[in-house]
Design a protein that fits this description.
By secondary structure, this protein is of the alpha/beta class. The chain has a domain of 210 residues: NAD(P)-binding Rossmann-like Domain (Rossmann fold, 3-Layer(aba) Sandwich), CATH 3.40.50. It is built from eleven helices and 13 strands. The longest helix is centred in the middle third of the chain and has 21 residues. Bound molecules: NADP nicotinamide-adenine-dinucleotide phosphate. The site of NADP nicotinamide-adenine-dinucleotide phosphate (NAP) has 28 residues, from helix 2, helix 5 and strand 5.
Length: 305
Amino acid sequence: MISTNKLIKKRILIIGSNGMLGQRLTEYYQKKKNIELMCCSVEESSFIAEVNYLQLNISNKSEVKNVFQNFYPDVVINTAAFTNVDLCEAEREAAWNVNVTGVDNLAFYTKSIEAHLIHISTDYVFDGTNGPYTEKDKPNPISYYGRTKLASENAVKYRKCDASIIRTNVLYGPAKFGRNDFVKWVVESLRNNKPIKIVTDQINNPTYIDDLVDAINKIIEFKKLGLYNIGGKEFLTRYDFTLRIADYFSLDKNLISSILTASLNQPAPRPLKSGLVTLKAETELGYKPQPVETTFQLMKKELGL
Ligand SMILES: NC(=O)c1ccc[n+]([C@@H]2O[C@H](COP(=O)([O-])OP(=O)(O)OC[C@H]3O[C@@H](n4cnc5c(N)ncnc54)[C@H](OP(=O)(O)O)[C@@H]3O)[C@@H](O)[C@H]2O)c1
């Protein structure tokens, strides 16, 4: 006899599905037969073809209510955010509306239908004086973006819905639409013989997007609640990461010069000694980030880089 449980599909709602992470999540769940998928982002239509899609501005509470009432998700994955770190300094109200009010709206309706919210946060909640950071370290954001993301985590906790908060850092991977990630930008610049200046004083463990997708899927599967760090296998300065990209793609390293973050005069301060320790995810989820060169190989294959 077939168990009726197996016939009921899990309903997953992806918010920010046109973004870098949202696209890869959409492509991943689109292929799964046991999932009923709904995608939402702020644009009129979906960048990924042949998915159920609704235009949604998460800052608008009644729009969020409509989506939740009509689709009635079991799981909500929020990847939507105001992610331009420098612009957040100038456009504070707009950043707050998306990163805090929007997330509060999602948490409110997640609680009302007893769904599971997975919310993506960042290492920018830390000041970068003493990284890499574990889930137990005390946040101390130094940019407005970082403050809004910490406030988003607090909004999720305040609503007391079933929630998992994932902090990640420096995403890169084979997203096909929208702005270039760091790896694609380096490859394109060097291929076009464009000199690039890269900071030597920012340390992270860059995260391959599909590793993050895998971690999110495990969190859903095991219904793990609470805070998880998800990052890459290696801690590298941005300069060393760039040299690894140049080496793998056989590009001219003479075009790469080193600078310090302070000399860039960016509106938002950056956490310098950062990165995220992933031991908790490795132990509890079986999270296993892929080696850096393997992720370049996968990008090469998928994007023809
Ligand atoms: N990228 C990184 O290196 C990084 C590092 C650490 C943490 N994170 C976090 O990871 C998550 C995903 O990042 P990502 O790089 O994939 O971001 P992204 O590419 O900027 O995608 C975010 C998506 O959300 C959409 N969005 C913006 N405002 C919205 C609103 N009011 N309602 C609905 N959708 C809205 C954006 O649309 P528009 O593009 O049209 O605005 C975009 O499609 C974010 O929470 C980010 O804070 C990212």
